[in-house]
Amino acid sequence: MSVGKLTNSLWKLQLIGWSMYFVLMLLTFLTRDTDETFAYILAVKSFRTATGFSLSCALWLIYRNIATHNIVERKNLNRDSMGKTIIIILVLSILFGILWTLIETIFFWATLPNFDIAHSLQYKPRVALSYGVTLLAWSAIYFGIAYWKQVQIEHQDALNAALLAETAQLDLLRYQLNPHFLFNALNSIRASVSPNNTAAKEMITQLSEFLRHSLMSNNNKESTLSEEFESLENYLAIEKVRFEEALEVELNIAEKAKTILIPSFLLNPLVENAIKHGFLTGPEVLKVHVSARLEIDGTLIIEVKNTGHLNSAEQNTRDRTKIGLYNVQERLKKQLPDKSSFRLFEENGFVVASIKIAQ
């Protein structure tokens, strides 16, 4: 569950909780003998509840930074941090309880002609303590819900990680062919092709090189950008034979970017996605542009562009290419945390998959 969904659920509980507080306070006061009219009692209880609600919202703004920080950063609560949080809750509950009492006293002074402030002061410490305990209970409930939601988030993340690991394991089993057998078989096929059929020979060679890179990348977590582009060249050359004039390819890599290390086999899923969805949403001739450049500040910008459009079908699909995009993002988060970002957007008739990596 995201922080936004957590905030929405807490808002609902906030409204329900203070509505119950208003009803309980009203029923409790109606059982007492008093000279005030029901309308005045209703006004007092409404004002008291509104004040408590407003003060709890102010506390919410303060507490949210603490709870959200722990949820977003996934930090475990240690004894020191928990102790600091408890002290903050106690101090703020007492201070806001005093403030609640002060606001209510001003309300009585403004609405009751014969209100004796001096006489009422003897009761104020008890009232402030009562309101402080109320806000303390509210604070405990808030943090209890927030951290329970955090546990749910971490549990869901663990399930997602297990699913991702299972998917990766299945992919590994699928790709775990004997490389020597595979390459020997391809070389045998290439030798059996007619010498005059240079296109077929070249395609087999490109397929062999592409598979060599993909299989070897299982053992290497990183490869140079130049090696990644060589793999793309082999892959796109095979696709060019398949689609012929319907596919136009352009690869551009800055000279200074060639030796930069990036996660292995990172770009192929983006190109695969560009070709598949580009033909579904673009013109008859699909243009695929892959580029890598360095910004002035040294940031590496990699872009995979294809003619076409983003659409709801592509956004919602759970096919292999979409899983590939998800895995690209997850690998960037895992291998380059706080140094990389990924965006998928539409610009000037092209769908752009953009990766930024700080050096």
Describe the overall structure.
With 359 residues, this protein is α+β, with helices and mostly antiparallel strands. The chain has 3 domains: 3-172, no CATH class; 177-216; 222-357, Heat Shock Protein 90 (2-Layer Sandwich), CATH 3.30.565. The protein contains 11 helices and 7 strands. It has helices at 3-30, 38-73, 79-111, 117-120, 124-175, 179-192, 198-216, 225-243, 268-281, 312-316, 320-335; strands spanning 222-224, 247-253, 261-263, 286-294, 300-307, 340-347, 350-357. Strands 2-4-5-7-6 form a 5-stranded mixed beta sheet, with helices on one face.
Give a brief description.
By secondary structure, the chain is an alpha+beta fold. The chain is 67% helix and 13% strand.
Please specify the SSE layout and strand pairing.
Elements: H1 3-30, H2 38-73, H3 79-111, H4 117-120, H5 124-175, H6 179-192, H7 198-216, E1 222-224, H8 225-243, E2 247-253, E3 261-263, H9 268-281, E4 286-294, E5 300-307, H10 312-316, H11 320-335, E6 340-347, E7 350-357
Parallel strand pairs: 2-4
Antiparallel strand pairs: 1-3, 4-5, 5-7, 6-7
